[in-house]
Amino acid sequence: MFYPYQITSEAAYEKAYAQSIEDPENFWNDIAQHFHWKKKWNKVLEWNFTEPSIKWFLGAQLNITENCLDRHIAERGHEPAIIWEPNDPEEHHRILTYKELLFKVEQFCHVLQNNGVKKGDRVCLYMGMVPELAIAVLACARIGAIHSVIFGGFSAQSIADRLVDAQAEFIITCDGAFRGNKEIALKSIIDDALIQCRFVKKVIVLTRTRTPVSMIKGRDVWWEDEIKKVETQGNPPFPAVTMEAEDPLFILYTSGSTGKPKGVVHTCAGYMVWTTYTFVNVFQYNPGDIHFCTADIGWITGHSYILYGPLSAGATTLMFEGIPIWPDAGRFWQIVEKYRANILYTAPTAIRSLMSFGNGPLQDKDLHSLKTLGTVGEPINEEAWHWYNEHVGQKKCPIVDTWWQTETGGILISNLAGVTPAKPSYATKPLPGVQPVLVNEKGESIEGNNVSGNLCIRFPWPGMLRTTYGDHERCRTNYFAAYPNLYFTGDGCLRDENGNYRITGRVDDVLNVSGHRIGTAEVENAINMHAGVVESAVVGYPHDIKGQGIYAFVIYTSSHGDENLSRQDIAQTVSRVIGALAKPDKIQFVKGLPKTRSGKIMRRILRKIAEGETQNLGDTTTLLDPAVVEDIVAGRL
Ligand code: PRX
Question: What is the pTM of this model?
Answer without folding.
Answer: 0.97
